[in-house]
C-alpha cells in the first residue's frame, strides 16, 4: 500500500489517517472533502499529505470513506466506478444495510468492504481527529465473503495498525443491534438536553446545579446533526422499535411513581444495576 | 471544631470526611452507620478515627448526615434533640423541601443547615469515598437565614476546605430545578439500561457493539436504588413533571421520524447542540 485516499477528513476519517500513517513510511495520504476549509485544516494539521479529487482515485491502493451515510450511499457506486481493479474501498458508516444494498450488484462489489469501526467522540471536523481513537475498540465487518480475499487482507492490515477487535455480522443484524446501543443513546441524550434547555429558558439558575452526572448523560447531544439525521433516516425501522421500547419503559416508570409503587421502582433500578458488569467490559 | 460526627460513611459522607481532615490537625472524626461492616471499612480506610453511637452526639461540634433522604427526614429531629446548643447539624441530601419541613418547628432549628453538595459518582460505600470529590463543585444551601450566624460560619469553613462554590436557594426551587438536571438524568439512564438489557436477553451480541457513547449515557444506571428510591418519592411531583416533558419530547421525535420529517429532526438536534456551551461550564 502506498497511496491512500481519505474521503471526509473529519473526526473519523482524520483519526483513521493518523493511525495508518504508521503502516509504512512511504505512505502518501490524500484527502478529499466537499468542505475545502476542512481540507486545508487537515493539511495544516499534517493529517493528510495532499489534497486530491475524485479523478485521482484511479491511483489509489485504498480508499476510506468517512462521510454522512446518505452521502456514502449516493457516491459509493461512483467511487467503485473510478478505482482500478486492485483498489480496496472501505467506508465507516454507522448503518450498514442501505450501504451494502447500494452496491450489491456493482461490477466492482469485490473491491468493497463494509465496516463500522465503533469509536468516536461528540466532536467533529479535522481538529477532532485523535491518534489511537480506535485502539481496543470493536470493528464490525459486514458481508466479508463478498470482498476479494487479498483486499480483505489489506483491510485487516489497516485494522491491525488501528488496534481494533474484528466482529463479523450481516448488515441487517448490525443495524438492528446498533440501534439499541448507539442510535437510541443519541436520541436519549438529545431529548434530555432539549427537555432541560426548554425548562432553563424560564429558570435561569438551572444549569448552575448541573453536575458531572448530567454532563455524562447528555454528552452525546453535542453530536453533529449533519451526521446523525441520515443515520436515523437509513435505520428508521430499527430506531422506531428502540424508541417504542424506551418510551414504554419510561411510561411504566412514571406510572409506578404516580401510583406510589416504590418497591417496583426500587426493583427496576436494582435489576438495571446489572449494567455495571456490562460496562466493565467497555473501554 | 474538634469533634465531627459523620452519619453515613458511604460515598458522600466518606468523601466529606476525607476533605475535612485538612481543617485542623486535632480533629477527631467519628462515624455512625446502620451498616457495621461499612463502619469497620471506614475505620480501616482511616476515613474515620472511631466508631460512635447517637448518644455520643452530645459531644459533637458538627454533625454531617449523608444517608438516604427518607432516613434523614426520620432521624433529623432526633439528632437535633441529642446535640448541644452549640452544635452545627448539616445534611447532604438530594432533596430539600421534605427535610426542611421535618424540622421547621424544631426548637433547635437554628442548629441546622440544609445543604446539597452536588457531586458524586455512580459508586457507593466507604470504598467509593474520594478526597477532592467536591473541589470546584456547587453546593446549594437552603433557608440559610434560619441557621444561627456562628454555625453558618462553621459550615462555610467546612465548604471552603472542600473547595465548593456556594449558591443560596429556597427548598422548593432547589427540588424543582434539581429534578431536571439530576433526577431526570438518572431515570433516563436507568430506563436506557433497562431497554438495552431487555433486548440483549434475546440478542447476545448486542453488548459487543456498545462503545464509549453508550457507556457515558447509561453510566448513572449503576447508581444505588436504596439512595434513589426515596429521592424520587420525596420529589415525586417535580420528577413526574420532568418525565412528562421528556416522554413528550421523545414521542415528538418519534413522530417526526415516522412521518419522515428529517428537516425537523435535524433542527431538533441542531438546537440542542447549544448544550455544548452549557457543559463547558461543568467540570
Automatic annotation (TrEMBL), chains A, B:
GO terms for molecular function: NAD+ binding; prephenate dehydrogenase (NAD+) activity; prephenate dehydrogenase (NADP+) activity. It comes from the Bacteria. It is an enzyme of class 1 (oxidoreductase). One of its GO terms (biological process) is tyrosine biosynthetic process. Signal peptide: none annotated. Keywords: Oxidoreductase. The keyword Metal-binding does not apply. PANTHER family: PREPHENATE DEHYDROGENASE (PTHR21363), PREPHENATE DEHYDROGENASE [NADP(+)] (PTHR21363:SF0). NCBIfam families: PRK08507.1. This is Prephenate dehydrogenase. It comes from Bizionia myxarmorum.
